[in-house]
Every structure is written in C-alpha cells, then in structure tokens.
Description:
By secondary structure, this protein is mainly beta. Helices cover 6% and strands 40% of the residues. It is built from four helices and 32 strands. The chain has helices spanning 149-159, 302-311, 368-373, 500-505; strands at residues 3-17, 20-27, 36-39, 43-50, 58-61, 87-93, 99-105, 115-121, 135-144, 168-171, 186-190, 195-202, 208-213, 218-223, 226-233, 236-238, 243-249, 256-264, 276-282, 330-342, 350-356, 359-361, 405-407, 410-414, 418-425, 434-438, 443-450, 469-470, 472-475, 479-486, 491-497, 508-514. The chain has a six-stranded mixed β-sheet, with no helix packed on it. Helix 3 links the parallel strand 22 (359-361) and strand 23. The structure holds CU-O-CU linkage. CU-O-CU linkage binds next to strand 5 and strand 31.
Amino acid sequence: xxxxxxxxxxxxxxxxxxxxxxxxxxxxxxxxxxxxxxxxxxxxxxxxxxxxxxxxxxxxxxxxxxxxxxxxxxxxxxxxxxxxxxxxxxxxxxxxxxxxxxxxxxxxxxxxxxxxxxxxxxxxxxxxxxxxxxxxxxxxxxxxxxxxxxxxxxxxxxxxxxxxxxxxxxxxxxxxxxxxxxxxxxxxxxxxxxxxxxxxxxxxxxxxxxxxxxxxxxxxxxxxxxxxxxxxxxxxxxxxxxxxxxxxxxxxxxxxxxxxxxxxxxxxxxxxxxxxxxxxxxxxxxxxxxxxxxxxxxxxxxxxxxxxxxxxxxxxxxxxxxxxxxxxxxxxxxxxxxxxxxxxxxxxxxxxxxxxxxxxxxxxxxxxxxxxxxxxxxxxxxxxxxxxxxxxxxxxxxxxxxxxxxxxxxxxxxxxxxxxxxxxxxxxxxxxxxxxxxxxxxxxxxxxxxxxxxxxxxxxxxxxxxxxxxxxxxxxxxxxxxxxxxxxxxxxxxxxxxxxxxxxxxxxxxxxxxxxxxxxxxxxxxxxxxxxx
Length: 533
Ligand code: C2O
C-alpha cells in the first residue's frame, strides 16, 4: 500500500457558465475539482489550504474513516472549520473499500462548487468482479446558480422562505449547449465494440436525478463503493451523495447520441430549470446534432425510481459476502420531514424547518467530536429520541399541535452494537423524498415501502439475504426505508438529508459510538493542526 499526498488549495476562480462569468470557490481552480485516486489499503494525506474569505471543511463522502473521525470533515460535527488563511491536513486510510465516492465541502452550501470524485481501485492484482472495462470515465452531476450560492442560502435563512432553485444542472461542470452562448456540453468519446465503466457521481445540491444515454443501455455494477449484482437499465436514478458505477458497451457503429440528466421530484415543488445535456460520440463521427432520447422521465416518475431501486442487490459473493446483522441492539424509528415554525422576523411570519423525530438540529459552537473527546460539557445532550414522542399518522394530516423543537442532541450507541433505523417520511408541509446519508458506516438497505411503516408486517418483508449496501438512501415520499448497520467505528457520526436545503433547515442528527475498551475501539488522538472554533 502507498501513501498518497494531495494538495487542495481552496481558491476563487472566475468561471463562465450560462453566458455569464462569476468568481466561484474551487479546489485548485477546477470545477468539478480534482479527482482523488487511491487504492484499497492506501493512506491518503490531503493538505487543504484555505485562500478564500469563507470558512471551509472538506468531507470524504462514504470513506469509512475507521478511528479517524477527525478527518471526516462535517463542520461543527467532527471539526471546527478551516478559517481564511489557515490549513488542515486530512489523513486517513482506505480500509475494506473500493469503488467510486465523492469529496465535497461540508459547510453552508459551498459544496455547490467545491466537490470532486474519489476513485478507489481494488488492491493490486485483484480484478473487478465483472469483465474489465476497456476504459473508465468519471461523470459528475452538479447544479449551477447564476447568483452567488452563499448569498442564495443566507437570504433564504433570513427571510424564512425557500431558497431559489438553481439555474441549471451540469454534467462534468457543463450545462450543455446553451442558446446564444458558444458553450460546449460534455462529450463522452467512444469506439465501437469497447466497454466503458462510467463512474457516476451526483454532487447536485438539491436534486435527485435521472440519467440516460440515447440508444444505449447501462449495466449497474456498483453503488456507493459496494458491488452489486449486475443489472441492465436504460435509466439510471441517483440522489445527491450517491455514486454508481455503470458499464456501457459502445454497440453502435457510428453517430452521436444525446446524454441527459433531468430532475426527479414527485411533489409539486418546482425544481430546476434546465435539463443538462451532453453527447456520446463515436470516433470519427461527423454528424452534427445527436440522436435524441425517445423519452426523458417526467419529473414525477416514481415508478422509474422504484424500478431502479428495487433492482439493486448486493453482490453477496464468496469474496464479497453480505453480512446483515441479525440480532438488533438498537431498534430506532426516525421520522424525517419538513415543517413550519413561527418566526417573527421572517417574511411570512413563519419559516420552513426540517427535523428528525420532531427535533430540528441546531449546529453547536464547537465540534461535537471535540466536545465528546475532551468531555466538554454543554455542547450537546445525549437525549436524541429513538422514537417519535407521540406516534401519529405520519403520512396523513399532521396533528395541529405538533411544533418542531430545536436541539443539539445525539444518540449514543456502544461500540460494535447493531442498529436498525426505520426512516419514516412525513407529510408535514409537503411530503418529499429524502436522501439520508450516514457518515462513518455503510448500512444495508433492508426494506422500503409506502405509507406508515407497519411494525408487525413490515419486518417480515425485510431482505436480509442480499440487500444493497450503501451510505446514502432515499426515503420515498409518503413512505419509509429501513437500514441496518454495525456500529464498529468509534466516533461522532453525522446523519442528515443530502438535499442541502433540508440540512440547512435542520434535518440532521449525530450518533456517538463509544464505550470502547480495546485498542480498536477508541478514536485516535486528534491531529495537532486540528482547527479550533
Ligand atoms: Cu456528502 Cu454529510 O455529506
């Protein structure tokens, strides 16, 4: 195994999209940012130097960070931010993982422009569990605001209103050919007969996305850096924070084929704006306009999302076995949703809030992990509820007296205990799909359904044989998802909705994994350059 050194300079860079130029926060002047390449078992050392006027942190989304929570990155959860002019060295070892993940800023909405790919190759000499592709290609989805993104969120928080939606989606940083601008969209160059592995990353801020290529199917082989049973599809579905490896065979002889990403939202909330497009182009093709897609899923194409999600199964091979915990130590039930609270200073006298079990998480003033490690009192409380205080009809009309509470609360579990969480979507304000991300662990997605979770019959349908393993899972609109994991990583681990608008409104909480006695059961000491608040 190797030690790989990276330098991430956080700098402003003038960037032109949608016919206008503005300075954006970038790593090394790139949008999307540089790719972090490593092999399983390698140690990665990234020196992040902050040259902009914003506080920043970087999160290595999906990297397990065994005992190295100090390198995880969410601001005020595992570290205080890196202040302007300061630097911080993230150091971690990639253990038991190979595949595609992403890194991104983890403070306010800076991840809109501060993100990039993590590519983890298998150990030297270990093949993929599928035929070796001729070539690999990284494809990152994002969103672009014509306005300054930090101003968008700040204004929303002050007014209590929803923030403005983005002006376009992007594929590898590009909206695609745009009227009156000479901008080029993303092009995937292929040769007939060759197979390509697309490492697809959804780094969009607020939108779950469909991805299609005209005239070509995709074979899904991996999600969130875990192998899946291969399956064929003409439409890929991916939530922010999720990653998917898909094989594509260039089985046409010539031509140019449209690539499109379009948003999924099964409620009436308006999303985006502009379907980002690109093209797949066969070598030496001269034709100018690409073959169009026969269909693009409509914005509310829930059946398409279900078909995709239901096809995902872990590989569960001899080499990559699926080990779902059977005995459960903590059986938790979390409602996730958006609501409204009174707000005297807000435009409508109220503001949108989002919560888990009716608690809207308040960011602490020092990092939870520091408070935990040094036993600093008064930063958080241990009383995050494992169940809703009063059960109600979660997917029906909400009880009128239910107001969201604020708090900085954590849920404590012992090292190596097993945890099941049923994530129940609620119908407060508007029912919406929530991609929930857990730091520090992969979990098994053992079940999902519509309506209220049925504690008697629901578990009977759990898949404990080959459920897909991942770090970010969609909780369906008006329904639920169930996950299981073993708390085998000591530290403080964030759980939140990966739609940045919902995180901002408070849809987040943290687990503390503790009581370690053995040498592998406690977090390592903090690095000497750990930023202070
Ligand atoms: Cu990709 Cu806590 O985030």
